[in-house]
Each structure stands twice: as C-alpha cells, then as structure tokens.
Amino acid sequence: MRFPSPPSTCHRVSFYLKGCSLSAVWPNHLTAEELFTTLTLPKRENLYGAYQSFLLNNLAPHLQQVDLPAGLQWIERKQSELRIADSFRSLSDALMLQAWEHLDVPEVIGAFVRVALLRLEEHEGIFCHRPDLQSEKTLQGNKTRRRQLLATILEMLCETGKEVDVLFYGNSHLVLETDIPWMIECLQSTPSEKIQQAWAQTIERCFNWSDRSQSNAILTACQEIPILAEVFAWFLKPVELGSPAAEKMKAAYLEKQRWENRTQKKPLLDPPPTQRIGTLLNAFEQGNLEAWWQLNMEMALRSNGSRSHGDLEPDLTILPGWASADSLTKQRILEAAKKYVAEQKPEIHRWLESNSFHRPTFAGYKALRLLQQEEPDWLRTLTTEVWQKWAPTILAYPLSSGIEQKKIHRELLKHAYNHAPSQIIETLLALIDKENKEPQGQISILREVECCWDDRLTRAVLKKSQDEQLKPKALGYLLCSLLDHYVEEAKILAANLISSHTASDQGKKIKAIITASALLTHADDAGWSIVWPALQKDTEFGREVVATAVYDFREKVIPITQMAEDQLADFYVWLSRQYPHADDPQREDGGWVSARDEVSRFRDSVLLHLKDRGTLAAGQAIQTIARELPQLDWLKWTLLEAQHVTRQRTWIPPKPSDILAIARNQQGRLVQSGEQLLAVLSESLQRLEQRLQGETPQVEFLWDQIEDKHWKPKDENSFSKYVKNHLDLDLKQKGIIVNREVEIRRKKGGIPGERVDIQADAVSKKPNGEEYDQISVVIEVKGCWHDELNEAMKTQLIDRYLHEARCQHGLYLVGWFNCRQWTTSDSRQKKAPKLDVGKIREKFDAQAAELSQSGVMVKAFVMNTALR
Questions:
Q1: What's the confidence (pLDDT) of residue 748?
Q2: How far apart are CA 410 and CA 396, in angstroms?
Q3: DSSP structure string for 569-628
Q4: SS3 category, 163
Q5: How far apart are CA 760 and CA 776, in angstroms?
Q6: What is this structure's pTM?
Q7: Do residues 332 and 280 touch, judged by C-beta distance below 8 A?
Q8: Are residues 138 and 145 in contact, defined by beta-carbon separation less than 8 angstroms?
Q9: 404: which of 441, 580, 714, 842 lies 20 to 30 Å off by Cα?
Q10: Residues 682-688: what's their mean pLDDT?
C-alpha cells in the first residue's frame, strides 16, 4: 500500500514561519486589509501547525468592527478556495457570524449581502458551508435582523437583475411563511415598481394556499395592490388550459423544480451517509470501539459526499449526520459516546508532544462535548478515574476561535479540573515545555486554564517559572500570568532575576529584560520599587526594558494610573533624557511603527496623564519635570493646563455665607482665577496710592530726607517690602477675599539674580490646613530710575520670573518718584524719565496689552510715589 508523500520540509518550515510571523504582527502592526491579502491555502489540512493555529485561533478574536468589510471581501474573493480548505471554511464561518452582529453598519451589511448571495447561489448556508442547521438557528434567533437582511438582499437582486428564486435555494431559512404580513407591508411602502414586483414574487414563492389565514391575507391585499393581484392571478382567477397564462405557470413550476433539484447536482453517496452511520453504530454496539471515531468522520458528510467540516470540529450536533438523524439514531449515538468515554483508553503520549491529529483520542473529547450539550447530568456520574484519563485531552484539544465554543470548552475543562487537578497540571506543564521548544516561545496554553486558576495552579506555574530551561519569552508569559493573579512570590523571583543579571551573560540579561518588562506591564504597582533602581543603575539595560515593555508587551500597558505623581515625574524625566523629544521619529507618510515610536508615545502619555490627573501633587510633579528639563520651555503651558484641570475637579462652590459676605461688603471679592486675583491686587494698590497721597500723606515713608527740602527715594527693596506689608494688611488681615486665603510672599530662587520681588497666592485649603489649589500672580517692582525700566516687563517679569515660576499672570509695578524735592545729588534722579505720571501710565499699559498676547496676562501699575 502506498501512502501519500509528506509535505516537503520547505513547505512545513515556510508555513510554520508564516504562522509565527502573522501571530507576532497581528493585530498591532498589520491592518485587516494587509492581513487578508497575505492568506494562502494551507499545503496540508491534516497538519496542525502554527499557520493553522493562527487561522483557527488567533485571527478572528482580534477583528474589530471596522475590520469586518475587509474580511467579508476576502470571503467573496476566495469563495472557490473555501470549499477545499477546512481552516478557510472555519475562518469564513466565524467572520460571517461576527458580521451578523453588526448589520447596522452600512459597510458591513453591503459586503455581507454579497457573500450571502454567493453562498445562496451555491446552495450553501448563509453563515456556514452546511446549509441547514446553523443558518436556521442563527436566522431564527433574531427576526428583526433576518428581515433587515432579506430586504437588503431583495434590493440587491433588483439592482443586479437576478431572480428572487435564489432566496429559496438550498433551504436557506431566510424567508418564512410567517413573514407574509410583513412582506405585504414592505410591498405597500416601497415606491419602486421593480422592488414591488420582487416582493410580490417572494410572497408568491413562500405562499401556502392551504393555510386559510394566509389565503385571507392575500385576498385582502390583492384588492388594494394591483402588482400583487397580477402575480397571484393563478390563485384569484380561473386559468384556461393551454392558454399563454397556463403555459407561463407551467414554465415557472418547472423552473422551480429545476432549481430545487440543483442541490443534487453532485452524484449521491452510495451508500448514503445515514446508512453509513447506521453500519458504524452496529459495529460499535458489537464491541468495535474504533467505529466511534470513524462515525465522527461520517457524520460530517453531506448526501453528495462533500464534507461540511474538518476533523477539528468538536461539536457533533452541527454536523449533517446529527441534523438528519431521527430520535432513535441520536439516542444510539449518545449511548455510543457514553461507552466510548467509559471504555476507550486515550493514547496521550502518542500526540501530546507532536502536531499530529490522533483521531481516536480526540474523538473522546467530541464524545464528552456531545454529552455535555445533550445529557449534562450524565457527566456528573463519571468517576474520578474516567476524568483522569480524559483530562489531558480536554486541556490540549485545539479549538477554533468561536466565543460560544470557548465557553462550552471551559465549562468542560472546569469539570475535569475539579476531578483531576493533578492530570490537568501535569498536562499543562508538558504543554508549556512543548511551546517552550518553539522558536517564538509563546505560552498560549495559560489562557485556557484561567477558568480554573487556584493555589495549586499558582504553585505549579511559580515552580515552572524557576526552570532554567525556559526561554526568555516563555518565562515572561509565565511571570505575566502570575502577576495578573497578584502572586507576590513572582515579584520576589523577578527581583532576583533582575539583580543577578550581568552584561557579560547575555542569556541572563535577556531574561532580566523580559522579567522587568513583565513587572512594568503586569504588576499592579508596575513593580516600581524593583524596576526603577535597575533603570537608574544601568541606562542601557533600562532602555531595553522600556522598549520591550511598550513594544513587545503592548497587549497590556504600563499601569501609570496606579503610580504616584512623584514616580511618574521621575519616570518622565528619565524617559525624556534617554529618548529626547528632538530625536523622535517623524512619520508624516505613515510607515512601520518601531519600538522608538512606541516609546515616544508612551513617554508623552505619562505627561498627558499627569496633566489630566487633576491633583495638586500632579501639578507639583510637572513643576519638578520643568525644573529638571529646562530646555522644554513649553512645559509651562502643560503646567497651566494641569492647574486648570485640577481647579475644575477640586472646585468647591461658594457657600451661601460667602455670597452673603460679598453682598454685605462692597469690597468683597471672589477669587477663582488669575485674572480675578490681578484685579484684586490692582484695587489694593489703588488704595495704597490713595493713602500715600491722601489728606495725611504717607508717601514720606518711601523717602529719606537729606536736608531741608532735599530728599531721595528709598531703594527698590524697601519699596517692595512696603508694598508687601500693605498687601498683607489690606487683603489677608482684613479678610475681604472669600473662598480663598491670599498669601503674600517674598520668593527667592536658587539662582542668583532670579529673585521674584513679590508673589501673591490665592490658596484653597482643606480643613486640616493642607493646600489643594493655588492661583498665583508675580509682582515685579521697579523704581522709575531703573536702567531697564522700559524692557524689564518682558525681559525680567515674563521671560525670567513668570517662566521660572511657571505662572501665567504678572503685575509690573513702577514707583514714580519724579518730583522737585528729589535732590540732584542722587545719581538715580538723572536716570528717571522726565514724564508725568499720566503719560508713563499710558505707555506701560500699552506695553502690557501687547505682551499679554503672547500667552500670559500682564498688567502694569504706575504708582504715584512723588512728594507733594
């Protein structure tokens, strides 16, 4: 006997690499359009490898709604290939079922209808390549969506000039007799005569003349709808034999019969599937256990010999053999499944470490699935020994991506784990070893045991994580799973791996990088106490860790929302120094997204999160960042936005007592912004000027008398102190500011010459005295003799003090001392402009208005400090 030759090594390797590559780039680095253009027919369907796994398990679960049109267009293009590839058929069926849930999207329903028409014309089911059961279940499950689909298909048939007969090919279950009243309404509401004709023909095709209620409905409707009456003329009026009308009716009947017989266009199997199933059931009942897995294969046959599903389909109830079986045959199948589960001995070691498909063993899983769906109570009677022998098969069975299929599988897996935890864990570890041998090192089997995770699994996976034979990526998968379950011992293991790595041992270094990346992305606190010292100690190591975390581990982002503000500030400064903004890649024309791109995006997301966090600590963190990165002068705007967000989120509305206080006191002010604080300060300075020049002038306190009638102004520092003391008395002690407490401070920076004269802060405090919000105005004080009087508003107040203080509002206060009593022996007197107060005020007001257009708000106040 000759056996078919195995696929060449070249083909096996190429499809293995293709499967690994697609798993690596989908969905984060490949669009749906790009993906579907790369799919090619597997060279061998019975070889379950990386490419088959990707098609069956990885592709469909990551499709988004926007990807569905591309997938449906792929089905339309590949319709002929779908008939010869089980994996392609399974993928196309999953796509159709996903698209069914999004028919409200115009792009989806248009592509869906084109595929549905293709399948109907081939006498196949709309949702799958089996024309009966699944289409019927899905369509009957949502009447509204089915009718929407029917109306859209009907419109497309009219556009393409096709007949409505296609709606009834292969028992499509799309049009039902119960739809007749609804279809009559559709006919009446459409303005298109062509679509009216199509509705009338569709109604006529599914009309049951023996149903009295339908007959009455048609008779009533025909009285009002001429087109319907014309189509139903054979029912309403006598027809003369041999007449043109009779010949037309005969031709229509024959055409209908011809289309109905097209389902038999392929030669029928001999013997037919039902007889084959009966023969195998007889053999099984006579003691031949091998007949069960052979029976599974025969149940997938249609009457014309084509197969509805491949060997991997675990649900026997959706196969034609089950759908066409009578109740007695179904009961015999169930009894055979029970006996097979109880008596068959699965050959676990024959297939566990290979990619082969061992039908006798996997047939046991199908039997369990069948019993779980049809007789779940019987499963509860199984002994521990039976569960123990089938537990490895249950865990290792290669499933496709269907959500419902996964749900049923995991219920069965939980049963197995409850009765045979040791066998499940032993198999899990064996499968981890198997996946660890693969070049990619992806441990996907861990996802399957999420449904039964407990302390026993934790201990087993934790111990396996310490296996030195694990490849770095495999270790990463295990650690991520442990960290997702908050296993503290995993952090200890990670800390040891990170601290013990050396630059000379490349293997340990790679494991340390993967481990640190796993901590950053999967630990609830980002493993900061472990990772941060390592990043600081070795920046090259840190760069590789961050790049790996944000690029290779991007299915779960670094949990910056759980990190403290000061930690985020340190992280952002480190990121900005290691990955400078000036070196960010420019990708205006798109292109491949690199690890550097992802790091830049993550770095920026840290600052964006801080800005939007809305806490005082976040604002302080941004101030820290700005001090550490002075070259990023745009950070002052980020700080202002952060303060605005904080103010919005911490805003406390004025109390009724505050509002009443303002109403009682005309000097009362409510300060909730920098503009309002500027206005309050200007009003206070006006009151100071009035006292200086009032009936009992106090301006002499700002002058030193040299001799009779000869004076000289005190220095700027004394003038600044005098103003500060006044503001303290006028604002804070009098308490005329409600909602906030105003504090007047002399601020000193750490850099010589960068001393702010006065800073006024309107501060909101909690009951415990802790500040939670602050609005500030910087006041720059100048005497009229200053060398840079005309330039200092910009060069000092804006460019230096407001920038350094990260403040948006400033007040430029000029003391105007020009008067005849100012002695000429004072060198400053000659420097003062010879202008009156009014003109100098106009000049500085205009300058302040112009500078305020640059993003800050500045006011000028020229105070008359001249002697009278």
A1: 45
A2: 12
A3: HHHHHHHHHHS-GGG----TT--PPPHHHHHHHHHHHHHHHHHHH--HHHHHHHHHHHHH
A4: coil
A5: 6
A6: 0.56
A7: no
A8: no
A9: 441
A10: 92
Average pLDDT of every residue of the chain: 81
CA–CA distances in Å: residue 228 to residues 152, 196, 231, 255: 20, 8, 5, 21
Instruction: List the domain boundaries for the chain.
Output: 25-264, 267-423, 668-864
- Asked whether residue 55 carries a pLDDT value surpassing 90, the answer given is no
Cβ proximity of 205 and 224 under 8 Å? no
Type and span of the H or E element at 533: helix 528-537
Burial of 770 (C-beta count, 10 Å sphere; 0-12/13-18/19+): exposed
Quick check: 175 and 202 in contact, CB under 8 A? yes
What DSSP state is assigned to residue 164?
Answer: G
**Per residue in 407-453, pLDDT tens?**
888 899 999 999 999 999 999 998 888 888 876 677 888 888 989 99
CA angle 653, 657, 662 (to 5 degrees): 90
CA dist 760 and 724 (Å) reads 9
What is d(CA 843, CA 790) in angstroms, rounded to the nearest whole number?
9
**687's tokens:** 């009151």
Residues 85-116: pLDDT tens digits? 666 777 887 888 888 888 888 888 888 888 88
Rounded CA-CA distance 163/492 in Å is 71
* Cα distance between residue 164 and residue 117, in whole Å: 11
- Integer CA distances (angstroms), 98 to 37, 80, 510, in order: 20, 21, 40
Distance between first and last Cα of the chain: 126
User: Tokens 């045979």 — which residue?
Assistant: 420
Lowest mean pLDDT among 238-252, 590-604, 849-863: 238-252
Spatial CB neighbours of 232, under 8 Å, sequence gap ≥ 6 = 200, 204, 207, 218, 222
Closest C-alpha to 726, from 767, 688, 676, 686: 688
Residue 815 identity:
G
- CA 468 to chain CA mean position, Å: 35
CA–CA distance, 312 with 298 (Å, rounded to integer): 14
Nearest-10 crossing angle of helices 327-343, 273-285: 40
Rounded CA-CA distance 522/477 in Å is 10
Tokens matching residue 832:
């003062």
Please provide residue 181's backbone torsions phi and psi, each rounded to the nearest 5 degrees.
Answer: -60, -40
